[in-house]
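Researcher: Please predict.
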Amino acid sequence: MCRSWPALEKLNLQHTDCTDDDIVAVARHCPRVTTLAIEYGCGKLTVPEAQRRNTPATLQYYKALRDKAVTSTVVKAVFMGEGMAGKTSLFRALATLREGDDEDDRSAAAAAAGGGGGGGGGTAGHGASPVLTAPDERTIAMDLEVLWETFLLYDMGGQSVYPPCQAPFLTPGALFVVVLDLSRGLEYCTKSMVGQLETLMSRVPDAIAMVVGTKADAVPEDAGGLRALLGKLEDARRAWLAKVHDAVRALPPPPSPRHGAFVAVASGRISAPRMQGPIFAVSAKTAGEPLRDLKRFMLDLLHATEGEEGAGSRGGPRLFPRYGEPIPLVYEQVRAVVIATIYGEDPKQRLAQVGVAGGVA
């Protein structure tokens, strides 16, 4: 479409069905474009939302996509929650669930959990499981892990001193998993859930989020037990979302769609997270079917489209439009080097897995 307009400098494609191929054509045939408006209503594009207000960065992405592309097979996921909520133990338990037969997965999870025994919730003690995390093993600031070769997982430390340095890692396009310690009761879980969702809302417009309760085996049976607790937490989540939606509707419109670009509030795009599914209740200690249900749900989200409850809906834009689609090879190169560095591997071997020969430039 740009072959006839080599002198084009400004192009507004907002609220159109433009695709990656269209923007690649712009990058190729419109060399003078300095302003490319694609911030809103372009659900088919794979360029990260953080780059969409920066025309040079957007064009750089699509020039790299034009030069060499590979299929994206990884989605960023962020585990966030209070300290010792069970985030790292949850990751370790999920990591024991392998592809293949369900019975094999259950056996692997049970073996990793060390089988039965009493004891306190999700913390390691005498005869502790290798899955469970002891207090002196708690995450410092943030750990980077790989889950099922599908999620690049940011495991956030939950102590109060860490959020300022974690904020830059709360970015659009990720799956945010708010982790609650169910053993601490309704009041604590409600406060923790709302606090984490408000933090997320202030940093990431339209964040894709879900809530997972850990240490389900340690919930007291009084006052209805686990089922009653989950029901009340669901009510609290719905009430909070309704309150946020009302508050957002009451906000005045931003003075310009391009005014302010460094945080959600400044850009006029503050909005409630897009919550996915019910509140899950699992135990890293006892494993079992709830853990497998959580895995299935997370993997199903990769192919889900927009809807009232997210997963399972069909017909709208995909929640993760970049997954399974072509992305610039250089993005995969950087990811391969980072993962190799984390695990002490040879970067050349990781790079070879994404079709790159030779060393690191």
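Model: The first helix runs from residue 20 to 29.
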